[in-house]
Specification:
With about 300 residues, the chain is α/β, with parallel strands linked by helices. The chain contains seven helices and 13 strands. About 0% of the residues have low confidence.
Length: about 300
């Protein structure tokens, strides 16, 4: 079986969640967290290695809450996203207090990845179909020469990704006739409406959206040569920082991928998943996420005891 790795980005703490470590919040009947279900689905799909990207100060909690039991089932590695982990020769911006975003998170896995890999958020539930689709794509893909990449992304139906407790930001996928991604339109404050979905504007008006649009939920499939691209790109990103944006600018996967698309250096296939996404954007989402998992267990999608 071809080796494929699942990278789980878990270094952030969601401010809208209220400051708690939402990635370690329990949702299942035996204390399972969202990552448990993602890893279960990934193993079922064929992934055979997991890398947790975390902050170093969370290492003990991660190993106690999930790492130690997962290590008995699948190969596990830890990568640490560090604020001051920047290339030599580049001055650290004074006053910077937050890590550098999802691009840096994946770059922190350098030396741990030598195979095709998927990337997901720790606090999102994606469903089984996306893992199968992305794994099968990665198992068949080959690294191409000349700096041209072949990547994939799980695309979710917009109406399947909305919160009942507030607006969300989604990357609306722009695709060609072959379902190749041509761009991602980052759209903020999307709310559920009786008609489907809309952007809630600052003046209180609603701009309707097609609820059937495919959106990105940060579920990517990459080849290992992408790490080198991230490394050179991160250096350029840091050198181009201005005094005004040095404290808050982020090196983000959607922006990086979009630049590759503009340069025509990547073919990126959007793999449509019909599954319902859910996650914890707001603390008020917790009861509904618990109810969603309860329903999945009742329907037999998962066993009552996930890990035996």
């Amino acid at each position: 079986m071809k080796k494929t790795t699942l990278v789980i980005m878990a270094a952030g703490i969601g401010s809208r969640f209220g400051g708690g470590i939402k990635q370690l919040t329990s949702f299942g009947p035996n204390g399972e967290i969202i990552m448990d279900y993602s890893i279960y689905d990934a193993i079922e799909a064929g992934f055979n290695k997991v890398i947790f990207v975390i902050r170093r100060e969370l290492e003990k909690d991660f190993k106690e809450i999930i790492g130690k039991r997962i290590e008995k089932i699948i190969e596990v590695e830890y990568a640490f996203q560090e604020l001051r982990d920047i290339p030599e020769g580049i001055a650290f911006p004074e006053g910077r207090t937050k890590p550098w975003g999802t691009g840096q998170a994946i770059l922190s896995c350098k030396g741990l990845i030598n195979e095709p890999f998927a990337v997901i958020n720790a606090d999102d539930y994606y469903g089984k179909e996306a893992f199968r689709l992305v794994h099968d794509y990665l198992a068949d893909t080959k690294v191409t020469a000349g700096g041209h990449f072949s990547f994939c992304m799980a695309g979710f139906i917009l109406e399947n990704t909305l919160s009942d407790n507030g607006g969300v930001t989604r990357g609306i996928c722009l695709t060609d006739e072959n379902q190749n991604l041509t761009g991602v339109k980052e759209t903020r404050n999307i709310v559920r409406t009786p008609e489907g979905a809309a952007v809630l504007k600052e003046d209180g008006s609603l701009q309707a959206l097609d609820a059937k649009h495919l959106v990105s939920m940060n579920f990517w499939g990459f080849t290992p040569d992408f790490i080198e691209e991230l490394e050179s790109g991160f250096q350029r990103f840091l050198r181009e920082l201005t005094e005004e944006n040095a404290r808050k600018a982020e090196y983000l996967l959607p922006t990086i991928v979009d630049q590759l698309l503009r340069e025509k250096r990547v073919d990126l296939t959007v793999l449509k998943s019909e599954d319902k996404w859910f996650g914890v954007t707001y603390r008020e989402d917790v009861p509904s996420v618990i109810a969603d998992f309860k329903k999945l267990l009742e329907e037999g999608v998962y066993p009552s005891k996930l890990w035996k």
